Structure formats: structure tokens, C-alpha cells
Amino acid sequence: MEQKTYIVLGMHRTGTTFLTQCLEGAGVDMGGSEDRHRENPEFLSLNRTILKHAGGHWESGTVPLPLEKVLEQQGKLDGKIRETIAKNVKHLWGFKDPRTALTVQLIMPHILEVDDDPFIYACFRKPEKIADSLNRRQGTPQNFGIAIAREYNTRLLNFLWDFCELKR
Fold it and tell me: Which residues contact 102 (CB under 8 A, 6 or more apart)?
């Protein structure tokens, strides 16, 4: 039986948890913890490690570090990336961690080693609405919420353009 991979990408507060719950309801093992966010703890740890090695994290109060800093981790973290994927691969499997929007270009080549045609779901929402939600939930300043949401959206769109080999 063919193995399939499902990857949910998107900034916090864009509906990634809802989509993950729908996939789980359809029988996909998303590896999510039982917490309300349904984030795969192993991919959460992996993304935090990648971002730490690259010099930052999304809660730092600044817009995420440049993609180049993340890509510089190639080679240094390949073993950890492969190990995390190997622990999670099943017949129908996937993961969701919003930080993956910042690290997907580093992780995707390793995903393609186990599934050359993964399903990728990208969740988007207006940056102002994300910022409102982040402000209500955790007091994130509105301007920072908008800036980080725009950065996540831009990174996702750029990744999708490249991954789908679309012409700009």
C-alpha cells in the first residue's frame, strides 16, 4: 500500500489546528500531541532546534531571521531532520507546526526522500486578523503581529512558487 505524507503549513492563528483535526478525523496520523494545538512534538522540537541554530525564534520580538540563516543549517542538522522524519513515517502520516513555514525549505528535501509527492496544505489569513488574535491571546503588539504574519505569508508563497515550479 502506498505511503502518503500530509504537511500543514501556516502561521499561528490561521486555521492549521482545524485542518489538522480534519486530517486526523480522516485517518491521517499527524503525530499531534493531545494538547489543543495538535502540534507534532518531534517536529516542534526539530523546528525550534533549526531556528535556535540559525540564531533566533519566532517569539523573539523581531521579524523571523532571513531564510539564508535557516538554509545555512543544511548539512549541520540533516541527521536530526532525517531521524525526526523516520520516527514519524507511517502509511498515512503528516505533521503540523507553524514554525515549519520558516524551515520548510530545509526540511522538504528530506521529506521528498520518503515521499516524492506529499500533500501540502497552506493556511492563510489576513495579517491584521492574525495580529488581532495574537494580541488577544498573548498580548503580542499589533505592529509586530502584522509584520510577522506578512513574513510567514511571504515565505509560504515563495516556497509554494518554487515547489510547484510556477513561473513568476
Answer: 47, 51, 58, 64, 67, 70, 152, 155
Q: Report pLDDT digits (tens) over 52-99.
A: 999 876 555 566 778 899 999 999 999 999 999 999 999 999 999 999
- Copy the grid coordinates of residue 21: 483535526
Count of alpha carbons within 13 angstroms of residue 125, beta-carbon side: 20
Under 8 Å between Cβ of 99 and 58? yes
CA–CA gap between residue 130 and residue 154 (Å, rounded): 14
CA distance 142 to 57: 18
92-96 and 4-10 strand pairing: parallel
Alpha-carbon span 25 to 20, nearest angstrom? 9
What's the predicted TM-score (pTM) here? Answer: 0.91
What order do you get walking across the sheet with 92-96 strand by strand? 92-96, 4-10, 119-123
Handedness of CA 81, 154, 54, 131 (dihedral sign): negative
Neighbours of 132 (CB within 10 A): 16
Nearest alpha carbon to residue 140 among 153, 156, 129, 151: 129
Fold classification of 4-163 (topology level)? Rossmann fold (3.40.50)
